[in-house]
Amino acid sequence: MNIQLALDRMTVAEAIQMASRVKDDIQWIEVGTSLIKEFGVGSVEQIKTAFPDKVVVADIKTIDNAAYELEMCFQAGADVATVMGVAPLVTIEKSLEVAQKWNKEIMIDLLNTSSETQTKLVNYEAIFCSHVSKDEQEHKGAQNSPSLGHTELFQAGRKVAVAGGITLESLESMKDLAPYVVIVGSAITKAKDPESMAKRFHIIAAGRETYDKN
Q: Which of 106, 131, 144, 187 is close enough to 111 for a disulfide, judged by CB 3.0 to 4.6 Å?
């Protein structure tokens, strides 16, 4: 499992500083949607320049105008860009076309997609993100385990990412499914000791430790 650090609701300088603190225990770095919206696609370039050896994900959440938006992200240095699964299929296909041109990947966010849509999407060569949104997490007032859904993607052998309130405990519950990417945000970035927390996520993801609530 790859640990993807989600960087949101901070400045670019703060994002680089946070990623620097935990870089030894993460493999992917996500330039979050709010970061891109507030500081532009230049934030992707700055983070890729700071961490050239990491997989950098531009969480652009494209839903239309795919060629223009993904070209910007890949030109800025992103290795992966996100596309919403609820977008028209022509947008998904255009995203894949642009990614292939740049030798990059897309991550299809399955947020709010129907079973019918998911059946169509599973045929594409992409990373699929099983995602519990921030608003849903706050509304339900509890952490969620997004890996419990979309099990058909695991059965189909697809690359699956999981996101949404991931904790050490929920990561432990995912070990049998072994997602390709586990996206972790505030559990690390808001921890009292981000370095120690990132290391615990890394160790559990690598299968060398089980979750201990103590």
A: 131
